[in-house]
Amino acid sequence: MQAIGLNLTGISHRYASAYAVADVDLQVRPGELVALLGPSGCGKTTLLRIVAGLIRQTEGNVIIGDRIVDSLPTHERGAGIVFQNYALFPHMTVAANIGYGLRAAGVGKAQISAMVERMLALVKLEAMAGRYPRELSGGQQQRVALARTLAVSPKILLLDEPFGALDKNLRLDMQIEVKRLQRELGITTVMVTHDQEEALSMADRIAVMNKGCVEQFGTPEEVYDQPETLFVAGFVGTSNLLPGTLATIAAAGPTVALAGGGTLVLPSARPCSVPGPVVLSLRPEHLRFARADEPGVDATLQLSLPLGALTVHELALGNGQAVKVIAPRTGEAARHAPGDQVRLALTAGAAPAVFLGNPDAA
Amino acid sequence: MSTAQSYLRQWQLMLPLALFFCVFIFLPLLLLAYISLHNDMEFKQAGIAQYIKFLGDSFNLGVLGQTLWLATKTMLLALLLGYPLAYFFTLAPPRWQRVLILIIVLPLLTSAVVRTFAWVVILGRQGIVNSVLLNLAWIEAPIKLLYTPGAVVVALAQIEMPLMVLPIINALSKQNPYLREASLSLGAGRWRTLFLVTLPLSLPGVLAGALLVFAAAASAFVTQTLVGGGQLMFMPFYIYQQAIQSNNYPFAAAIAMVLLVAVLVVVTLVNFAGRSIKGVAHA
What we know:
heterodimer; A: alpha+beta; Rossmann fold; CATH 2.40.50.140; six-stranded mixed β-sheet; five-stranded antiparallel β-sheet; 20 strands; 23% helix; B: mainly alpha; MetI-like fold
């Protein structure tokens, strides 16, 4: 199957007076899996429904392949959507559900049953053909929903919070399963999720959305390591957002004097390099416990939660602000107990992001 | 709380209605059955002569047949007009729904007599339909609309419409809206989606509405009599005639029992057929 790209240009959607989606541009490459990641109400589901033709956008164009599909109704778009609750037809067997799209297209019976068998094999549900959806487990229902959508060979696959209704263990299995199918079929896929781990682990690229806008569109590594906005830094992964003042000292480089006391010397000041009030976004792994004679930030250790090889430490800065640090179980950190005064320094190679403004904006 | 205890509480809550039913519905029914099982008008000789009389006379069976056929036609017309209305209602924005629901239940808020007289006015020789047709010169003389079986069906279908529409609205609005969207996204157009997904899944509501309309239409005394006129004889008027005009209570009671049983049989059969449609009952 020849994969087809998806292009969104200047998409806006207004509900009454509020913008649910505001001027979104997004280019999904053929065969790519893109995750729309954001908190609830950020417009990601609206955007997905616009691509599917279930909502007509106020402005902008949806382009599938090289065709503008704005005027096409849902059933002529070739965008297959899998809903969070699967929306399997309760009055049809698994086989009838999977064959539904082909039946609607007027495909011959022999061809339908051949395709249904192929799809059942693809999602490993051969034994369930005659069952009704209510007789299946959540994971099985999800696989049927996927098979039903894939059976019509959609140009674009849309997944709306596809793993939201599954429990944790099953979720991981299904994530691997969906990723495998998507790779195998090379189908261009857009997935909506509010779960950052899901987005980071499954997507080729992530579009982080907030308040109807795409804040950053990049690979999981880019989004995690080089957040472009304070919102992205706060929403993707865990971040310590610490207010401070940025100064550039010729000899040392960019230096942030933290409001909570102490200064940190950064390898670079990005994305904001203007001296003045800033917010420093420090990942828990960006910090390490240093020796008392090293330069760094003083803090009080409050709590240590061992997670196997790593330990999460909760500390308080001089002004009481909480800071999380993840460190190996052995090493400098092991010598401290809750209540101790410790010194924190940047780990080697850590490049925390610097943003203009205050942390409440995140 | 254990299940037995909670069940007991529910049972107690049902008590007032159960008593009411016993005194005002179950007892009168028993009384009716008792009266019908007498061979003479003075209730002296017990027997099933009234039933033999009813079932052995082709005129009586004709009245029964006419009544059931009338109810069937009313049910079909109400379904034909009511389903699209219910479907339209569920697709309408909430603002519209408030207005629509008022229009839909309006017939329930007016007396059956008033509604029936409205139909008499509409369908009469000098009625609205005839005057319009005459003015348009589509007809030369008033046509007979009132006192025809068709008029009774149309009037009854309108009057019993809420009984059809409300259960269907209930079934449609309980349907998962994503099912419709899933069907569309799988390439099925609107009509195909309606006939393959929406309609089959709303069958329990259709069934409930159809049975309610059927039972109501079979016993709609006022409308049957006023719109149907003296020439068309249906079971409710027949009962009235035998009881009030001829003072033959045992025979009237027997007719009533026959109508009751006939409606129950039809309702049970249709219900059974409906439930056996695979997968629908559990939707």
